[in-house]
Amino acid sequence: MPAIIALAAGALALGACGDDEDGGAGTSRVTVQVGVLPIADVAPLYLGRERGFFADEGLEVRPRVIGGGEIVPSVVSGDLQFGWSNTTSLIVARSKGLPLRILRRGVRGGSRPSESSADILVRKGAPIGRPQDLEGRTISVAGLGSVSTLTANAALEKRGVDVSKLRFLEIPFPQAVPALDSGRVDAAYVAEPFATLGVRAGHRSISRPILETARDYIVATYFTTDSYIADNSDVVARFDKAVNRSFDYASAHPEEVRRVLPTYTEVPPAIAQKMRLPDFSRYTDTSTLALTARLAKKYGYLEKEPDIAALLYEP
User: Fold this and answer.
1) Average pLDDT over the chain, rounded to whole?
2) Tell me: domain 2-109+216-311, CATH 3.30.300.350, correct?
3) What is the CATH number assigned to the segment(s) 113-213?
């Protein structure tokens, strides 16, 4: 986080990238770079590009797959105009002074097990029969101080685990199952499609941490900066509108989500057909954002809970 704050301090005023030309509905066409991860959560962005929802708004969207820890600093510095990140990291960053604003559309963790898109998997053959057996063992997470560690702590604490005895090791999702295979870690916190890949490799789910933290938990969303909104309010409004259309389409067409997944991830089509999908549907209840802030304070990720209303983008 200090590196991110240093980037913020030196960031220049942001501007839309690309050359303006005639776009849809009389708007200027703008190219925007969007930082994403190779996970199921961002399938609506790719579908929206295919279906022309962004083009309709005069936008050319260029996704850039980078590490999760790189997305926030890249947006703050202006290298990217938008990014995808988990709500825990965004809330913590805002509490530390980064001028981030999140869009009101993202993925939720679902309300029943069939909708849960994240698991804590334990290594096949490991003597771990119940959550308490994770005490003193190493769990891989995509990011320290992120939604992975926060919901792992919250879910496992509910089940009687002394979370002070958990050891977390930061390993990106694509490398988590191999780390579990090799015995480098005893358990792995993985999002889809890597949860399905891990189960097919023989590993076992011991927790569905997001669902166990709260039903319909808002996991992640697109975001930008206050200064980008101030300088490019029309672009942000158009991006937000296209994002909403894209999520609506993905929610109504899960078969299309499964089809597009192998085009931007290394997931085989057969796995894409079997994996659980995130909840892309609309929501108005943002109370789990406040829950995230409370849990982040409880687990020492921040000292003061930020103003959640100030974090939400209002078109």
Assistant:
1) 89
2) no
3) 3.40.190.10
